[in-house]
Amino acid sequence: MIANKFVLHEHFSQHHHFDFRLERDGVLKSWAVPKGLPGTPGERRLAIEVEDHPLSYGDFEGTIPEGEYGAGKVRIADAGTYDSLAWTSDRIEVVLHGREFSGKYVLIRFRKAGEKNWIILKGKEN
């Protein structure tokens, strides 16, 4: 079985943020995470679902030119593989195996705040 990949891009665009991407169904499912991934169990952060990206974008580091969507510098803050524990339209649970981020992470759709808004939290380690 081939492991699914994840990448966390740090994006220095008009608004500094992080892009969390999970390989699934031949694309990178993507969320903009303004404050980055949470580091401690139970800590919650906003994650805004954005368009899927091609798998090739997972290795991208560099500068998106002025005038193009997302203009600014992009660097890989972390990358690795993940195990999927659950994946529904409203809840995604994964275990990350990265250099900086590892362990269980949960994305929960936050419908009250809008269709594209999710909460991401670091799960408790067993």
Task: Describe the protein's architecture and organization.
With 126 residues, the protein is mostly beta strands. The chain has one domain. 0% of the residues lie in helices and 60% in strands. The protein has strands at 4-12, 17-24, 27-33, 44-54, 62-64, 72-87, 91-98, 102-109, 117-122. An 8-stranded antiparallel β-barrel has the order 1-2-3-4-9-8-7-6. A hairpin with a 2-residue loop joins strand 2 (17-24) and strand 3 (27-33). The model has no long low-confidence stretch (mean pLDDT 92).
Oligomer: single chain
Number of helices in the DSSP assignment: 0
First-last Cα distance: 25 Å
Total tally of structural domains: 1
Layout of SSEs?
Blueprint: E1 4-12, E2 17-24, E3 27-33, E4 44-54, E5 62-64, E6 72-87, E7 91-98, E8 102-109, E9 117-122
Antiparallel strand pairs: 1-2, 1-6, 2-3, 3-4, 4-9, 5-6, 6-7, 7-8, 8-9
How would you summarize what this structure contains?
This protein has strands at residues 4-12, 17-24, 27-33, 44-54, 62-64, 72-87, 91-98, 102-109, 117-122. By secondary structure, it is an all-beta fold.
Notable features of this structure?
126 residues, mainly beta, globular
